[in-house]
Amino acid sequence: MRVLVVDDERNIRHTLRVCLEGFGCEVREAATPEAALAALAQGPADLAFVDLRLGNASGLELLPRLLAESPALDVVLITAYATFDTAVEAVKRGARDYLPKPFTPAQIRHVLERAKAQRELSSHLGDLEGQLAQAVPEATLETASPAMHAAIGFITRAATSDAAVLLRGESGTGKGVLARALHSMSARRKRPFVTINCPTLSEQLLASELFGHARGAFTGAVKDQPGRVEQAEGGTLFLDEVAEMSPSLQAQLLRFLQEKQFERLGEGRTRKADVRVVAATHRDLEKDVAEGRFREDLMYRLNVLEVKLPALRERPEDLVPLARRFVAFFARAAQRPAPELSPATEAMLRAYPWPGNVRELRNALERALIVGPAGVVEPQAFPERIASAVGPGVSLGGPHTLEDVEREHILRVMASTPTLDEAARLLGIDASTLWRKRKKYESDAKPEA
Questions:
Q1: CA–CA separation, 160 vs 164, rounded Å?
Q2: 102 vs 129, more confident
Q3: Is the model's pLDDT at 129 over the cut of 60?
Q4: Does residue 161 sit in the same domain as residue 293?
Q5: What are the two backbone dihedrals, phi and then psi, of residue 406, each rounded to the nearest 5 degrees?
């Protein structure tokens, strides 16, 4: 590791250098705050040991300046005047650890091992985040839709505050994705992002999941269990479909939003948590308030900042690009070349209203790549409700040519079989003949230049 030692006592600097170099570290020394900043300017460091008293200067005052110069730097404050208050203040200002003098080589080794383990964990988490981005293609915020641009711009501004945010929009529009984006852009991004899907749990289980429970609070509660509020400490709590909460839980949530206080189920002790709440709903909350299903005061507490997400049919500019991203993602997962969307398929995607929004589009394209032949995604690979969006298909006995009937039948068989050979076997023709027919259909589907 690259280590910077900042101490005004030459003997301490020398002792630390010998010890650190013995553990394989590359060491630089500085006796003053200015020398420490100059040393960082010459090259980055992984870890810094900083004395609390630097002559007339303060290591606590130097700490934020070091982190401003090198945000990834781990700082360990060292001092012969160790107090609890000093330790707390050091951590508040960004110190990773606190080491009282005199210290031993074993203590130095322990600090190094902890710092190395933390860096490896951070690297691992970064890799996982990258994998998540690859695993969730809809998580991209790329858009050509003015309405979606406005929503993302508002979220970007909202990320600078801790106010409650209410995300409104139809199911499947990406409210969860936007909630996670809000968290990742906020000052809380290094703390947990915790989700609760409110409609999936009974009232008692949802109360326990949200606020936790004490042992014996209900049948099966064999031990104390913290809730999601405590798990989200310092971070963001996302309440998906918050309008499905019962009236009694709404009252508990309102109290938590107002006072940041709560009790675990079956426990009298009042607890506190520093959590930002982001909620989402597809319901008309104003109507629910008027009909007595949702508390008006809670609605106002939740929608300090309100964002309306457009339905997929309201952002036609994004439909085909999003579909192509899904196709590329599912093809990569199947370790096969990404097929093209035929012009007929693109027309069908634009014609269908997508009541299930982005979630329905994702599922439809995953199915299409499973049942459809490789090369080109045709409308026949989609469920009938979607494929019929551009008009009725060919039907037996209808006003169609024999060639039209043959083409429709061949494409449907190909869409329902895993391989070209299997389709040829069912059709009773040679695979090479079927291959030529498919190429002809693909050529016929391409627009004229």
A1: 12
A2: 102
A3: no
A4: yes
A5: -65, -45
Same domain membership, residue 427 and residue 335: no
Determine the Cα angle at 443 with ends 438 and 449, to 5°.
Answer: 170
- 300 and 160 in one domain? yes
Closest Cα to residue 302, out of 289, 316, 291?
Answer: 289
Range of the domain at 318: 313-388
Say if 131 falls within a structural domain.
Answer: no
Cα separation, 56 vs 31, in Å, equals 12
* Residue 35: both structure tokens together: 């020398």
323 and 345 together in one domain: yes
Measured distance CA(276)–CA(244) in Å, rounded? 20
Nearest to 167 by CA among 151, 153, 156: 151
Residue 323 shares a structural domain with residue 379: yes
For 282-330, how does the pLDDT look when each residue is reduced to its tens digit (9 = 90+)?
Answer: 999 999 999 999 999 999 999 999 999 999 999 999 999 999 999 988 8
DSSP string, 196-212: EEGGGS-HHHHHHHHHE
- 246 and 303 inside one domain: yes
- Specify the amino acid at residue 421: D
pTM of full prediction above 0.90: no
Q: In CATH, what number is assigned to the domain containing residue 339?
A: 1.10.8.60
CB-side neighbour CA atoms (13 Å) of 126? 6
